[in-house]
Amino acid sequence: MSTAQHPLSVEVDVVREDVALVTVEGHLDLDTATGLQAQLANQLHHGRRHFLLDLSAVPFMDSSGMNIILRIHHEARALPGSVHVIAPTPAVRRVLDLTGVSLTVPISEEVGDALDLVDRGEAGTDQEA
To answer: Where is the STAS domain (predicted)?
Structure first.
C-alpha cells in the first residue's frame, strides 16, 4: 500500500494552550505514519501536553499507527500530560482492543468527553467516557 493510494491527512487544532486536537483521516500504516509522528512531535515542541486523537476517519491502522499512539502516550505522561483516542472506527478499535492499547489510552466517543477526562486528570485509566 503506498501513500499515493491511501494518503493520510493530519489536521491540528489547538483547543487550549496545552491541548491539541489531532484529526487524522486515511490509512495509518507504515507508509503514512511518519506524517502523524511529525505533527505530534511538533505539537510537543510547542508545549502541548494533552493530545486528543480523532481517529473517526481512519479505516485502517497497523502496528505503525499503534506504536505512534503508544510513543506519544509515553512522552505525554512524562510531562505530565495525556493522550485520548476519539471515536475510532470499528477496525481501529479492534486493533486497540486486541493489543491492549485501549487499556492504557482512554477512548472517548466525543471530543468533549475526552476534554472532561483531561480536566479531571484521568489519563491512562481503563475506562471509557
So the answer is: 17-118
φ, ψ at 123 (rounded to 5°): -125, 130
Q: Which residues contact 89 (CB under 8 A, 6 or more apart)?
A: 55, 56, 57, 58, 59
pLDDT on residue 115: 94
Mean pLDDT of 66-94: 95
Residues 6+ apart with CB under 8 A from 10: 22, 23, 24, 25, 35, 36, 39
- For the chain, the structural domain boundaries read 9-119
Whether residue 7 is preceded by a cis peptide bond, meaning omega within 30 degrees of 0, is no
CATH topology (fold) of 9-119? Transcription Regulator spoIIAA (3.30.750)
Cell of 19: 491541548
The per-residue pLDDT for 127 is 39
- Helix or strand run (H / E) with residue 86: strand 82-86
20 C-beta neighbours (distance < 10 Å), count: 23
